[in-house]
Amino acid sequence: MTIHRPISLIGAAPSACAHRPDARCENCKVRAFSICAALKPDELAELEEIAHPVSFAAKDSVFAEGDAVSNVYNVTAGTIRLYQLFRDGRRQVIGFSFPGDFLGVQLEAEHGFCADAIGEVSACRFSRADFSALLARKPHLMKALHERTARDMRLMQDQVVALGRRSAEERVGWFLTQLRQRAARCGNGDGERVDIPMSRQDIADYLGLTIETVSRTFSGLARDKAVRIEQGGVRVLNEASLGNLAAV
Amino acid sequence: MTIHRPISLIGAAPSACAHRPDARCENCKVRAFSICAALKPDELAELEEIAHPVSFAAKDSVFAEGDAVSNVYNVTAGTIRLYQLFRDGRRQVIGFSFPGDFLGVQLEAEHGFCADAIGEVSACRFSRADFSALLARKPHLMKALHERTARDMRLMQDQVVALGRRSAEERVGWFLTQLRQRAARCGNGDGERVDIPMSRQDIADYLGLTIETVSRTFSGLARDKAVRIEQGGVRVLNEASLGNLAAV
DNA sequence: CGGTTACTTGAGATACGTCAAAACGAGTGG
DNA sequence: CCACTCGTTTTGACGTATCTCAAGTAACCG
Questions:
Q1: Shortest Cα distance from A91 to chain B (angstroms)?
Q2: Could you tell me if A110 lies within 8 Å of chain B, comparing CB atoms?
Q3: How far does chain A reach from its first CA to its final CA, in angstroms?
Q4: How far in angstroms lies nucleotide D28's C1' from the CA of residue B193?
């Protein structure tokens, strides 16, 4: 089992992000499937009013477990890894945040997990107070948030099922299927090709396996012609066999 | 691995539940730590207005995965088991609902898991429409619900960590600690004694283990004088060693 | 008191973990 | 363009925690 050490916190430097409504702008595409879709144009403007664009370099920490929740983030580009670290170095990845996802929205006093950037990440930062105040003014934003939380809950439930009752091969099949669905929802990906932005170690820590088992399982799926392993991702060759692995 | 079969749905028969404010009434004790604590007296009356008391016999199904969410429940007595069933009979218990807990509050179209009674259960039932309407009228009820959901999320996160990165012994230690905290929050239990309303099989399916492993682990903890196994529960003999198992 | 269900215990099998080394890819510098 | 380093991924051989199968014991219930 790989031993992990806590990574030091590095402040996020504001990035150059114009943040004007524009169909070609990455942020605006993100909006279509983010919580912002629940907002009317004038409310969106209000949200932008309190948004601070930030960016993180690869491996930067966004926040650590136990930190006071002072900000809420909306990811606009890149992938964030959410995890909990044991004193002895064991690590469990709780989930990944992709563009459109919110972070820290539970508005608890302290963060219950660590979050750091896998590769370059752009996000919008809201101060907790601003966001909370906006939420109080906009009941249907609150409702949208609740629905989003319900979706996250469902995802975590699936993870519990995977970790509790699935074999290594089934877990990897489920993981790939999940990644694919997420990419499809975001509109990118041609369907067969699945980008995998995270390392084998991250996948292992997400699926409750070791890196060796994950690697062997990928190799096995490739040997069985279920997928072809490519640079930074995978190409699905046999939809059905992957689907069978992922099904409950 | 034990094979489970779906249980048939049995309608809930209304029970005799006076449901009047009264300090000795079980329902009223429950209110203190339920979402109802967020309500002013007149609002509570409004909630009672739309509440239908129901009860379930042991092993009754409350709802099954895929059922339309037509009702929301607030447990007032007993324990409910939440789980997902695989086609091949594997079962993963997602969680347990104790007095004060809400069920179906995510207001999704369909239930994402099965729920059935362990032993006798009493609950308040709200129609989805009524509850939803009340929620729309009372923003701070919505907020309370959101906080409740955040707590449930945190619980599920802990389960992910347990299933992904803990040994059998650690999982059982975590489980007992969790049961104890829940009982303490409800005000019952003398601290040392922990009631365990669910079967070994339920615990196994919750912790992603087999019933044999759970049983052996309990025996091991008893052999090490960490707990004494009693009828329908356990007595904690060595707080520290249990705590160590449960710690991250 | 007999039947049924839940729990415990033992012996052997296996999926996954551990340890070690090789292969690969991305930089970096000569 | 090649040699070298460093981190990631893959592969192999072996160990072990947990599962499986099977039998025994205890608790429950009519």
A1: 7
A2: no
A3: 28
A4: 23
Does the nearest atom of strand D lie within 7 Å of B229's Cβ? no
- pLDDT per residue rounded down to tens, chain B (248 residues): 999 988 865 544 444 343 433 333 455 445 555 666 666 677 777 888 899 999 999 999 999 999 999 999 999 999 999 999 999 999 999 999 999 899 988 888 999 999 999 999 999 999 999 999 998 888 778 888 888 888 999 999 999 999 999 999 999 999 999 999 998 876 665 678 999 999 999 999 999 999 999 999 999 999 999 999 999 999 999 999 999 999 98
Report the 3 state secondary structure along A175-198. HHHHHHHHHHHCCCCCCCEEECCC
pTM over 0.85: yes
* A159 shares contact with chain B (CB less than 8 Å): yes
CB B214 within 8 A of CB B203: yes
Q: Are A100 and A144 in contact (CB under 8 A)?
A: no
* Dist CA A176 CA A246 (whole Å): 9
B233-236, strands of its sheet edge to edge: B193-195, B233-236, B227-230
State whether A146 and B150 contact (CB < 8 Å).
Answer: no
The nucleotide lying nearest B207 (C-alpha to C1') is D18
Q: Which residues contact A99 (CB under 8 A, 6 or more apart)?
A: A26, A30, A34, A75, A76, A77, A78, A186
- Of A residues 124-153, those with CB within 7 angstroms of nucleic strand D are none
Nearest CA in chain A to B159: A160
Which one, of A128, A99, A125, A104, lies nearest residue A114 by Cα? Answer: A104
B75 has which bridge partners? Answer: B123
- Residues of chain B with Cβ-Cβ distance to A243 below 8 Å are none
Do the Cβ atoms of A169 and A245 come closer than 8 Å?
yes
- From CA A245, how far away is CA A168, in angstroms rounded? 10
Closest CB to B86 among A152, A156, A165: A165
